Amino acid sequence: MFKIPKTHPRYESLMKREKLVAGIEAGITSKQGLIAHGRGEAFDYLIGEKTLNSARRATEVAAALLLAAKKPVISVNGNVAALVTKEVIELSELINAPLEVNIFYWTEERAMKIKEHLGKQGAANVLGDKADARIPGIEHARAKVDKDGIYSADVVLAPLEDGDRCEALVKMGKKVITIDLNPLSRTARHATVSIVDDIERAMKNIISVVKEKKEKKGKGKANLLEDYDNNENLKEVIKEMVKRLKEEELIS
Ligand code: PTJ
User: Fold this and answer.
1) Are 114 and 24 in contact (CB under 8 A)?
2) Quick check: CB of 128 below 6 Å from ligand 1?
3) Is residue 142 in contact with ligand 1, taking CB distance under 6 Å?
4) Is residue 39 within 6 Å of ligand 1 at its C-beta?
5) How far apart are the CA of 102 and the centre of ligand 1, in A?
6) Domain segments of the chain: what residues?
7) pTM strictly above 0.70
8) What's the CATH code, domain 53-241?
9) Which of 75, 139, 166, 224 has the smallest number of CB atoms closer than 10 Å to its CB?
10) In this structure, are residues 51 and 205 in contact, taking their beta carbons and an 8 Å threshold?
11) Ligand 1: which residue has its CA nearest to atom 25?
């Protein structure tokens, strides 16, 4: 990894790039993953590289959904595996959900490497190598899923997802939670709950809210989804973006 001094004002952001480059070198992340991350970075600038209130609200709902799920699954792609390995493993243990390797730019070799990487870091239950079912209506590789995993899940956490698969999963009757810095993306628009935040911050927040809710042992409202409208929340994201830019006198 390239050495970035901790004092660098953009240390955290630059370290994410290093993790992705290391992911490519390890055969885990696709080259296209760098382009996708760059798009994410641009939106992170607009939100001030901080978690917005609207993302906190979505996180509360997402955590409640994950805890109430009968069969939750966490979908892992090459960027997720490089950026938040420890966090996806911790969350999978907390909510008793398998991880499922599911990649867009599919090669058997990369899928196996992601699985091995998760296993080496301590993941006990990683699916994705069977891929014995298909999501209806999807022609690309992400349609291939495990029958016992994403295919039969009731709630899927699918960070950095693509729009058509997100839409297809929702059509199958699943609740889909996504993490995507782009509030305009098709994924963000189609998901049941969209957390518009950087994957590292979002995963840490989900973990901490899940822990809090588990400590309260079911006290508090379980079905926060009743009072939640994802499209309204996405409008709040844009409002918060604009408000921040005005406050910093970047726009008038
Ligand atoms: O490993 P693979 O083959 O499954 O490929 C993974 C990528 C991410 C390359 C693939 O799924 C892809 O091309 O995704 P998209 O369609 O470019 O969508 C990725 C979305 O994630 C975009 O809307 C980005 O804004 C967003 N994004 C990128 N980096 C981050 C992010 N959101 C949150 N945190 C990030 N760090």
Assistant:
1) no
2) no
3) no
4) yes
5) 13
6) 53-241
7) yes
8) 3.40.50.12640
9) 139
10) yes
11) 40
